[in-house]
Amino acid sequence: MKLGVLGLGTVGSAVVRYVLEExxxxxxxxxxxxxxxxxxxxxxxxRRLLTGxxxxxxxxxxxxxxxxxxxxxxxxxxxxxxxLKRGKHFITATKRIISDMGGELFRxxxxxxxxxxxxxxxVGLFPILSFIQFAMSSGKRIKKVTAVLNGTCNFVLDxxxxxxxxxxxxxxxxxxxxFAEPDPTADVSGYDSALKLKIILRLLFGNxxxxxxxxxxxxxxxxxxxxxxxxxxLTLEDVRFASEMGYRMKLLGMIFATEKGYAVCVxxxxxxxxxxxxxxRGPENGVEMLDDKGEVSGWFGHGAGAEAxxxxxxxxxxxxxxxxxxxxxxxxxxxxxxASYEDIYTRYFIKLYAMDKPGVLAKIAGVLGRNNINIASxxxxxxxVKGREFVPLVITTYHIxxxxxxxxxxxxxxxxxxxSRKLSCYRIIDQV
Length: 432
What we know:
The chain is an alpha/beta fold and about 425 residues long. It folds into three domains: about 1-120, 3-Layer(aba) Sandwich (Rossmann fold); about 125-300, 2-Layer Sandwich (Dihydrodipicolinate Reductase, domain 2), CATH 3.30.360; about 345-430, ACT domain (Alpha-Beta Plaits). It has 14 helices and 19 strands. Helix 1 packs across helix 12 (about 305-320) and helix 6 (about 150-165) crosses helix 7 (about 165-175). The two termini are about 45 Å apart. The mean pLDDT is about 90.
């Protein structure tokens, strides 16, 4: 194998170092594309291997496999298309091109019998996806998928609960320890998890279904899209109250079978502390699936850090050397309907600050009742500040559709007995 590598950052350096130090006799690194050939590198490589023009790699007829680790979506798109055009295998860690362009790329690769390696886009989750795809091909149908898809967010939420530190303090720590990018916006906004969830949808339901799904940021919106939100607006108080009630906060990618089709979303949610997803610590990722036979499948692994991504890239390289077919989404099959995520029925956790006066709780319960929301529990905290007008109140509900909950919340926010600035609402996800 004659290898061309695009990018010599943290992950690129880890891949190149591994290949050079292991002395793999079947792998030869022929060229490495970098932005600045004079820059000091974390890995020692010969100057003759470096180029400042990534297109040299694409045009080199001796290079048969290209590993793209630039983090630059424009470069990744051009590289993917040129590799397939020129008959080169393509391995990438850029999630967006697999999420958004997967149909085009996989069809072309299948036609030319080329390999597309994308394990690095869903680090830690590839084995379970292979199992799930096999299960579906044998006639099983998905009822629910819940997944922790971002190691950075899991690390942040875990550390907030364990240490009692604020979001700002923990995200700074995550950057310093290499569990978050210097600009972590894509991770903490939920965008990275949404890209991964769409890749999972592509594998489960085929290119024809995934190609029609668009990502939309925000919650409480209607439509047949994959809506996502993140942890950047979440407070330490939310995490603490959830923990006190026996739950753990996670950023989850979710797929639910409903009467109108499959509803999908990414958002912070609560899981019981004794569940498998709650046990994921630090940068770990994990996914659980419940099928129509009542069987539960799951897989867990590290989802952040250069080493986990390096391993994923090397697994794709080994697959090419071994002649194994990659896990390709299907081009044909049943056209799966995507429902509004407001059709998902779950329990809810509502935290608000209510006026400390007689009759207030009854008014709040009345709003919920008029929206067919059945209260499961109420926890009222005594104010630590004497004479404070508003006190914290935490309500959990029984199963109800999202539309009813969001309508009730919108009413509560307009009531003068509730401090609208401190109202939070999260799903409670039962163990599959």
